[in-house]
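> example.struct
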C-alpha cells in the first residue's frame, strides 16, 4: 500500500505544479480588476477555484496511477514528467500570447508583438545554451532548473490556500451560530400584548431588469405575464414604483436598507458594500425571523451587498458553481475577479462545474427550485430573499419561448449592438435594439412561467398559508430614446 501511495505522489507532483502555475497566471490576469468586496472573500474565492482544479487533476492522476500498476512504472513516470513539462510550455505560450496581444491592442502597434517574441526567444536561447554548456563541462547541472523551482513553490501555495479556505468556512460558521443564538433569544421573549396571530413569513422575489412597460399586467400589447395577470387579481398591485438606481448592487441596497443612495452612501456598484445595522435583514433577524437568501447573480449576492452577516441560514449562490460546491454553501461566495477567472478557465477546462451548470448567473428554473426546497427547511417565521437573474440579458430562454417574438437571431443582433454595452446608440441601430427587446419579451414570459411553477410547487406547503409574497424588480431596461439596456444613466 505504501508503495502505491508513493507512486501516486510521484505522479501527482508535477501535475500539481502545472495546476498551480495555470492558476497563478489566471490570477495575475484578473488581479487588477476593481472589486469592492473584502480581501478575504476574494482570496477564498480564488482558493476555491484552485481546490476544484486540484480535485480534477488528482482524479485524472489517479486513473493514470491505476494504469501504472499494470505496465512498466518507470515508463509511466517518465511519460508523466514529459507530459507535465509539455503542459507547462503550452500554458506559458497560451498566456504569453494573450499578454502580447493585450498590450498590442493597448499600444495600437502589432509590430511590438513580433519584437517582444524575438527578444524572449533570444533570452531563452541564451539560457538553454548556458545550461547545456554547464552539463557538458561538469556532467551535471549544479543550478536548479525552472521546473525544480516550481516544484518547491507548489506545496506552500496549496497549504496557504487550504488555510485561507479553512479560515473563511470557520468564520462563516461562527457568524451563522451567532445569528441562530440571536433568533433563539428573540423567540424566548414574551409575545407583545394584543399580538395573538403568529407573525407571517416573508418571501421577497426580485427579478433583475424587469420593467412594467413590457408586462401585460401593466397594459403591454404582448401577453408576456399571463400568470402575474391572474396572480394580481388576488394581490395588492402597485402602479407607481420608482427604482432609485439602474445598478443592481445599489438598488438591492436601497430595497434591503430602506434608504436612498444619497442616504446609504453607495452611489455606484464600485463603492464598498453597505456596512450598517440599519437594514431589513438585521431588523427581522433581531425580531426572531430566520433569514436566508437564494441569489442568482454576484451583483445581488448578500456578500457583495454587505448583508451576509445577518443571515441565519447562510446564502445559496446559484451561479459560478464549483465541483466542490459545498464551499459555496459554507460561506465561500463568488466574487467579480473569481467569476472572471472561472469563466476564462472554463474555456480551457469546460468540466470545472460538473455536474452543475457554471454561469455568471443562475437560470430562474434552478434558482426557484432551490428556493422551493429551502422553504421546506426554514424554521418559522422566516424571511427568504430570492434574486432572479431573469429577464436580465443575455435573454437566454428555452423552448417554447425562444423565437416566439424575435425575428432576428440574437447573435446577429449582438453582432451589431452588444447587450454588454449600456450606452447611447444612433437611430440607425434601432432595428437591432428592437430585436433585443423581442428577446427580452421572451425572457419575461419565461420568467412568468417559472413563477407560476414555483407558486404551484409551494402552494401545498402549510408555511405559505401565513406568508407575505412580494414580487418586485431592482430596476428596468431601456430599448428606446437612444439609450440601450441599463447601468449608466
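> example.seq
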Amino acid at each position: 500500500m505504501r508503495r502505491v501511495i508513493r507512486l501516486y505522489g510521484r505522479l501527482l507532483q508535477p501535475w500539481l505544479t502545472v495546476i498551480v502555475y495555470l492558476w497563478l497566471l489566471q490570477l495575475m490576469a484578473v488581479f487588477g480588476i476593481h472589486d469592492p468586496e473584502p480581501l478575504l472573500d476574494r482570496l477564498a474565492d480564488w482558493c476555491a477555484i484552485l481546490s476544484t482544479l486540484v480535485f480534477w487533476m488528482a482524479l485524472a492522476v489517479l486513473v493514470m496511477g491505476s494504469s501504472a500498476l499494470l505496465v512498466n512504472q518507470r515508463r509511466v513516470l517518465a511519460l508523466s514528467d514529459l507530459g507535465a513539462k509539455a503542459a507547462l510550455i503550452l500554458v506559458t505560450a497560451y498566456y504569453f500570447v494573450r499578454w502580447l496581444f493585450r498590450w498590442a491592442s493597448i499600444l495600437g502597434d502589432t509590430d511590438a508583438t513580433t519584437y517582444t517574441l524575438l527578444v524572449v526567444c533570444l533570452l531563452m536561447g541564451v539560457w538553454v545554451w548556458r545550461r547545456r554548456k554547464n552539463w557538458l563541462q561538469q556532467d551535471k547541472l549544479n543550478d536548479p532548473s525552472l521546473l525544480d523551482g516550481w516544484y518547491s513553490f507548489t506545496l506552500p501555495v496549496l497549504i496557504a490556500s487550504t488555510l485561507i479556505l479553512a479560515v473563511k468556512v470557520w468564520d462563516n460558521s461562527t457568524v451563522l451560530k451567532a445569528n441562530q443564538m440571536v433568533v433563539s433569544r428573540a423567540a424566548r421573549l414574551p409575545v407583545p400584548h394584543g399580538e395573538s396571530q403568529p407573525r407571517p413569513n416573508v418571501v421577497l422575489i426580485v427579478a433583475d431588469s424587469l420593467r412594467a412597460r413590457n408586462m401585460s399586467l401593466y397594459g403591454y400589447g404582448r401577453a408576456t405575464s399571463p400568470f402575474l395577470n391572474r396572480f394580481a387579481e388576488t394581490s395588492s398591485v402597485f402602479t407607481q414604483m420608482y427604482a432609485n438606481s439602474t445598478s443592481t448592487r445599489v438598488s438591492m441596497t436601497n430595497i434591503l436598507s430602506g434608504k436612498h443612495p444619497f442616504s446609504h452612501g453607495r452611489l455606484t456598484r464600485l463603492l464598498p458594500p453597505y456596512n450598517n445595522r440599519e437594514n431589513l435583514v438585521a431588523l427581522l433577524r433581531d425580531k426572531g425571523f430566520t433569514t436566508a437568501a437564494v441569489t442568482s447573480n454576484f451583483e445581488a449576492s448578500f456578500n457583495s451587498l454587505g448583508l451576509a452577516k445577518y443571515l441565519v441560514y447562510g446564502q445559496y449562490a446559484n451561479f459560478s458553481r464549483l465541483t466542490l460546491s459545498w464551499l459555496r454553501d459554507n460561506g465561500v461566495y463568488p466574487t467579480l475577479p473569481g467569476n472572471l477567472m472561472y469563466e476564462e478557465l472554463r474555456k480551457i477546462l469546460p468540466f470545472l462545474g460538473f455536474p452543475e451548470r457554471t454561469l455568471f448567473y443562475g437560470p430562474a428554473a434552478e434558482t426557484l427550485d432551490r428556493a422551493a426546497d429551502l422553504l421546506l427547511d426554514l424554521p418559522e417565521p422566516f424571511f427568504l430573499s430570492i434574486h432572479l437573474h431573469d429577464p436580465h440579458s443575455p435573454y437566454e430562454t428555452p423552448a417554447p419561448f425562444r423565437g416566439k417574438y424575435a425575428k432576428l437571431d440574437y447573435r446577429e443582433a449582438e453582432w451589431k449592438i452588444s447587450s454588454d454595452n449600456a450606452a447611447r446608440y444612433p437611430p440607425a441601430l434601432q432595428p437591432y435594439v428592437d430585436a433585443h427587446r423581442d428577446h427580452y419579451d421572451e425572457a419575461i414570459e419565461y420568467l412568468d412561467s417559472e413563477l407560476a411553477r414555483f407558486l404551484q410547487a409551494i402552494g401545498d406547503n402549510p408555511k405559505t398559508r401565513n406568508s407575505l409574497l412580494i414580487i418586485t424588480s431592482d430596476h428596468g431596461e431601456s430599448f428606446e430614446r437612444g439609450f440601450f439596456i441599463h447601468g449608466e444613466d
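> remarks
Residues 146-187 form the longest helix (42 residues).
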